[in-house]
Write a structure and sequence with these properties.
Elements: E1 3-6, H1 11-35, H2 37-48, H3 59-68, H4 71-94, E2 98-103, E3 106-114, E4 117-121, H5 131-143, E5 147-152, H6 161-170, E6 174-177, H7 180-189, E7 199-201, H8 206-215, E8 220-221, E9 230-234, H9 240-251, E10 259-263, H10 266-279, H11 286-296, E11 297-301, H12 305-315, E12 319-323, H13 329-333, E13 339-342, H14 348-353, E14 379-387, H15 390-406, H16 410-425
Parallel strand pairs: 4-5, 4-7, 5-6, 7-8, 9-10, 9-12, 10-11, 12-13
Antiparallel strand pairs: 1-11, 2-3, 3-14
Helix pairs in contact: 1-2, 1-7, 1-8, 2-7, 3-6, 4-5, 4-6, 5-6, 7-8, 9-10, 9-11, 15-16
Bound molecules: nicotinamide-adenine-dinucleotide (NAD), L-histidinol and zinc ion.
Nicotinamide-adenine-dinucleotide binds next to helix 2, helix 7 and helix 8.
Length: 433
């Protein structure tokens, strides 16, 4: 019989917190629309103790910051950016542009055009999320975005040196030390000093994710990528200590980060619970991990792996770590997740920091309808058409006239009529004299 060994806080409590966040974000966006840069400055001072002369870093400031970063850190940034770039290039090369002739002289085509300007949000209010610079900016540049305006918040008034270095090395065209709703809103609506962009990509806390959600439409967004989530599917072969470490590795992101275990082994579940309790007090980030585990930690014991995968799908979790004897089964059995981590040889932290797949992933159920950030999110898949055969123009014009009139669209019908009649009588041609 399925059993719940640990459950999370009731959904109503979570919903109430979300409503509160949504209202605050709405008020900040409205204020920035009205007062522009002055409001941006006020919120940056309030939330991040940061109110410089200019939020944009000059090339000289960037050079000074990069010079402060230890050589090993820069080498690691370059290594990881190479991994991210390699994977992103494969994604780009997998995209097909084509033109097909569907009727004589009827040419239909598809192209992928990068957005002209993208905002790359690199989070970091609580701790530096340097790796998000690789994920957002390198990927945008592989997609061919000409203007990438990248924002990251200072951390309690301090410049995140490694993150700025990563933004620079990734190829950002503009770097702003600005975070939160104020950064997202400025990029979306444009202020005197920050030019508006066409699309904003990147992860963030509940405020950042909600700001992107509210501004969607006025600006494009990559996906809903809010507070981190992890779900582990484990059988009796899993090492309970590894499971506990992996759950806490993501719970440390913040007090609103869910960590869920679904296992077929009650013995593993009980050991995991003990390890988590033992590990938590020694975690330097326990201020985030403890409330996350207390309020959003769950342990479910189920009867079979099929049941485990089916239950896991209902969470549509951002990350799913599979620690079972045959982890690749998950590729067939699961549908709803941001990314899968198969077997004990890899982990969510590899995806977060080093391996090369993109760590900007859907949260709060968005994995039901989207995958994570990738080259394609910066591209617009557009179509075009051309007809170079008069008989086809006549035929399409006649069908168009009839089809449009069924829907009472007389204006549309006439566009079809003039082509049908014009090409039939030879009054229309491709090279008019
Ligand atoms: N889903 C993903 O792909 C993914 C990837 C990486 C990180 N994340 C998430 O990103 C988040 C990073 O969080 P963070 O806080 O360190 O950085 P952040 O950059 O997302 O947010 C920092 C900003 O939050 C704003 N803020 C803080 N308190 C506020 C309040 N009370 N009202 C309004 N605005 C407020 C501040 O303006 C600050 O600049 C974590 O939740 C992490 O889980 C998600
Ligand atoms: N786990 C985060 C995605 O939700 C990504 C990340 C970056 N650094 C640490 N973690
Ligand atoms: Zn992480």
């Amino acid at each position: 019989m399925p059993k719940v060994l640990k459950s999370a806080v009731p959904v109503e409590q979570v919903a109430a917190r979300r409503t509160d966040v949504a209202e605050r974000v709405r008020a900040i966006i409205a204020d920035i629309r009205e007062r522009g840069d002055a409001a941006v400055r006020d919120y940056s001072a309030k939330f991040d103790s940061w109110s410089p002369e200019s939020f944009r870093l000059s090339p000289e400031q960037v050079d000074q910051i990069v010079a402060r970063v230890p050589a090993q850190v820069l080498e690691d940034i370059r290594f990881v950016q190479d991994q991210v770039r390699t994977f992103a290039r494969h994604q780009r090369d997998s995209l097909r542009e084509f033109e097909v002739e569907t009727l004589p002289g009827v040419h239909l085509g598809q192209k992928h055009v990068p957005v002209a300007a993208a905002g790359a949000y690199v989070p970091g209010g609580r701790y530096p999320l340097t790796a998000s610079a690789h994920m957002t900016i390198v990927t945008a540049k592989v997609a061919g975005v000409p203007r990438v305006a990248a924002c990251t918040p200072p951390i309690r008034g301090e410049v995140p040196d490694a993150t700025v270095a990563a933004m620079h090395l990734a190829g950002a065209d503009e770097i702003y030390l600005l975070g939160g709703v104020q950064a997202v809103a400025a990029l979306a609506v444009g202020t005197e000093t920050i030019g508006r962009v066409d699309l904003i990509a990147g992860p963030g806390n509940a405020y950042v994710a909600e700001a992107k959600r509210q501004l969607f439409g006025e600006v494009g967004i990559d996906l809903f990528a809010g507070p981190t989530e992890v779900l582990v599917v484990a059988d009796q072969t899993a090492d309970p200590f590894v499971v506990a470490v992996d759950l806490l590795s993501q719970a440390e992101h913040g007090p609103d980060s869910p960590a869920v275990l679904i296992t077929t082994s009650e013995a593993v579940a009980r050991e995991v619970l003990d390890h988590v309790e033992a590990l938590l007090p020694g975690m330097p980030t326990r201020d985030f991990a403890e409330p996350a585990w207390r309020d959003h930690g769950e342990i479910h014991v189920v009867d079979s792996l099929d049941e485990a995968f089916a239950l896991a799908d209902t969470y549509a979790s951002e990350h799913v770590q599979v620690l079972t004897a045959e982890p690749r089964q998950a590729l067939e059995k699961m549908r709803d997740y941001g990314a899968l981590f198969l077997g004990p040889g890899t982990c969510v932290s590899f995806g977060d920091k080093v391996i090369g797949t993109n760590h900007v992933l859907p949260t709060r159920g968005a994995a039901r309808y989207t995958g994570g950030l990738w080259v394609g999110k910066y591209l617009k898949t557009v179509t075009y058409q051309e007809v170079t055969n008069s008989e086809s123009s006549v035929r399409l014009g006649e069908v168009c006239g009839r089809a449009a009139r069924v829907e009472l669209f007389e204006g549309h019908a006439r566009s079809g009529d003039v082509r049908a009649a014009g090409f039939r009588r030879g009054e229309l041609s491709w090279n008019p004299a």
